[in-house]
Each structure stands twice: as structure tokens, then as C-alpha cells.
Write a structure and sequence with these properties.
Elements: E1 10-14, H1 17-26, E2 31-34, E3 41-44, E4 54-58, E5 68-71, H2 75-88, E6 92-98, E7 102-108, E8 114-120, E9 131-132, H3 139-147, E10 152-153, E11 168-169
Parallel strand pairs: 1-4, 5-8, 10-11
Antiparallel strand pairs: 2-3, 3-4, 6-7, 6-9, 7-8
């Protein structure tokens, strides 16, 4: 049976299109791929392989997304972006998040949209799970924290991660 394999793209309504393009290109490194003069501006983190993953357009009566997430290639990249967000000053509420199966950096963009950058740890861990983590710790320290997480009950089978199913506690039904 066919199914989705990844997020295609997300679009949000914005008040100041120029400021938001500047933030998402200069701070997060997205590339504008289309639509600068039109209703929507298209951006991609992988413009050589993906036309767009993110679209911004003028605000109207629609509401914004609850959360926008972007995958990053490495823990090093996540930590570097975290540092950049803290020093740039345009994002607010910048914080580290340990989901077990990923480490993330959550923040609010200049217009208050909730955004999370994340890197997959390869560990299996039932969701939802989110606890604060200090992304200024070394990569080795961060991974020790993830690897030491206790088993957690889950009511559904897990199909991902290098230790698939090993982080699940027995569940009584």
C-alpha cells in the first residue's frame, strides 16, 4: 500500500515577508527557489534535489502551523545552529529538546511561529517525549544522556532506529 515517506512542504502566513525571508535564509540557511515576486516565496534546504520544502505568504484569515520542523544532517550542525540562533537575536525562546529518538532546538521565529530543528539519534524511543537538554554540552555528553535514557512503555510497535524496540518497557494490556 502506498504511503508518505517524508514531509513535502509546509506553508505559513507572515506579516513581514522580507524580514522572514531574511531570517530563514541567513539564520537557517534555506535557499529561495521561486516566487519572490508572487503571492508565495518558496524555499528549500536541498535546492539541488527538492524545489521547495517551505513556503511563506502574506497573512490572511488562515492560522499558522502549530509547529514547523526541519531535519539537520548532524549533531554538530544542530549545535552550530543552536549557537547561531542564540547569538543572532531574532529568534526567541531558543532551547534544547531531548526526544530520545532525536535531539532538537526549539524556538520562535521573528513572528512567533514555533520552529524546531532536529537531528535523529537513531535510538528508538516512544513519543511523545520531550525534556530539556543543554545543547552546549559536547556531542559525547549529549549522546551519553540519550543512551542512558530508561525504557518507556508504548502501546504501539516501533519500526525505526538502530535499537528498534529495545527502549520499550513491557506494557500490560
Amino acid at each position: 500500500m502506498p504511503g508518505v515517506v517524508s514531509l513535502g512542504h509546509i506553508g505559513i502566513a507572515v506579516q513581514d515577508k522580507d524580514a522572514m525571508i531574511d531570517f530563514y535564509t541567513k539564520v537557517l540557511g534555506l535557499t529561495v527557489t521561486d516566487g519572490l515576486g508572487g503571492r508565495g516565496t518558496f524555499m528549500s534546504a536541498r535546492p539541488e534535489t527538492e524545489h521547495h520544502e517551505f513556503v511563506i505568504g502574506p497573512a490572511d484569515s488562515r492560522t499558522n502551523a502549530r509547529l514547523i520542523t526541519f531535519f539537520v544532517d548532524s549533531l554538530s550542525d544542530l549545535r552550530e545552529l543552536y549557537q547561531g540562533l542564540n547569538t543572532d537575536g531574532r529568534a526567541s525562546d531558543v532551547h534544547g529538546i531531548n526526544h530520545g529518538n532525536s535531539l532538537g532546538c526549539g524556538f520562535k521565529d521573528p513572528e512567533g511561529n514555533n520552529v524546531e530543528l532536529y537531528w535523529g539519534t537513531g535510538m528508538d524511543y516512544p513519543q511523545p517525549h520531550a525534556e530539556p537538554i543543554d545543547l552546549s554540552l559536547s556531542e559525547a555528553e549529549l549522546m551519553r544522556i540519550v543512551e542512558a535514557m530508561p525504557a518507556k512503555p508504548s502501546m504501539v510497535p516501533h519500526h525505526y532506529g538502530a535499537d528498534r524496540g529495545k527502549r520499550l518497557a513491557a506494557v500490560s494490556v
